[in-house]
Hints:
Subcellular location: Endoplasmic reticulum membrane; Microsome membrane
Low-confidence stretches: 396-414
CATH superfamily of the largest domain: FAD/NAD(P)-binding domain
Keywords: Endoplasmic reticulum, FAD, Flavoprotein, Lipid metabolism, Membrane, Methylation, Microsome, Monooxygenase, NADP, Oxidoreductase, Phosphoprotein, Transmembrane, Transmembrane helix
Cofactor: FAD
Distance between the termini: 28 Å
Number of strands: 22
Enzyme class: oxidoreductase
Oligomer: single chain
Largest sheet: 5 strands, parallel
Shape: globular
Number of domains: 2
Membrane topology: Single-pass membrane protein
Number of helices: 13
CATH class of the largest domain: Alpha Beta
Amino acid sequence: AARRVAIIGAGASGLCALKCCLDEGLEPTCFERSKDIGGLWRFEEHPEDGRASIYRSVIINTSKEMMCFSDFPIPEDFPNYMHNSKIMEYFRMYAQHFDLLRHIRFGTSVCRVSKRPDFASSGQWEVVTESQGKQEAAVFDAVLVCSGHHTDAHLPLSSFPGLEKFEGWYLHSRDYKSPQPFLGKQVVVIGIGNSGIDIAVELSHTAKQVFLSTRRGSWVLHRVADSGYPFDFSYISRFTQLLQDLLPPNISSFFLERQLNARFDHTLYGLKPKHRVLHQHPTVNDDLPNRIISGRVQVKPNIQEFTETSAIFEDGTREDVDAVVFATGYSFSFPFLEGCVKVVENQIPLYKFMFPPDLEKPTLAFIGLIQPLGAIMPISELQCRWATRVFKGPCTAPPCHPYPRCPRIKPSLPAHRYVKSQRHTIQVDYIPYMDELACQLGVKPNLLTLFLTDPKLAVEVAFGPCTPYQYRLRGPGAW
Length: 479
């Protein structure tokens, strides 16, 4: 009989998990607590608790050729950077093409995932779910956790003295939907990640004044790079990665910072951080310098305290404020996994960011629990391709056991390179991590063989953008 796999969540990672299970002849059942697919990318005016949520205008920061699933290219007529509605359209096309919806149980939440008594020999799990107030239990041979890391809004209210007496209103970026409620208001946006900058820019067209408060500043990348090509399409290549590996990090950072400052001087605009550009997760926005130079967005330091009607910043300035948007990120947790994994300070010990290292059998994997310097969808897909082959067993791609018996977990990236921050605990470089997974699976492109057999393709693979299609050139699942 086919091995049964439980998949938790029907977002981007859950959909490709279904597809990969079917490819390997496994029998998947996907549990989705909401009524539809799409996860983070499905806009909802009033999202349910514990579900990731975006605002109406969100456009993705990765371009279509770099973010698509490797065996299902995004249509030619779709824009390079897609609005969330277009991303949903693509997901629906993918689900329909591979007939995935019949394997999804909507309106079903996972209450508990626990080892069976004979787990050491069987590797099986008992999964308890709830739908319409009724609970039921079922046994599965493996579990894929695809619930992502944008579920619990991180709201550090205790870090802002006086907020309890502030008479305006405040909200987390998760609850921000559109700029209309802020018409004519003075608004502070706290946080300079992608959501913080996007929301500040959007509000600046509606609000009376927007203040962008940041503790450490940020390097701001732009979607449109040289000659009008998408930034990731131009810079995420094997050749660029080789240069980055050969050069000291400070030299690589110097060249990229020089290019970013040529567009606008980060010091002049009050944005230059103490850290180098390669020490942070990319912040991407094309419009911020225009809004700053026109005075619609004012960059401010961290907030020292709130009064009833104003915010006092660490440089001593005071501004009247009507509303505060906390763009302070998310934390993740897995309450349904009874003691199998522990999340401490937004960190979780997983081999290759996937497998808990102390399970007797490798039958539990986390998909998409990662923050790449690139697109998440191809990473989730490659993780699923590897995990499902491990589940199917005996896997043909080495090693058959996905992790060595050692107490230390090999990180995919030197953690010390990144600024200490909640958003950097699951950070990886795109190509090195994809290649690590590809080596486990046996699908990493062999440049030497390509140069001998197809020199033109070899040049594209080495010097062109590192698209997901590169991981379909050889090995299991090759085109």
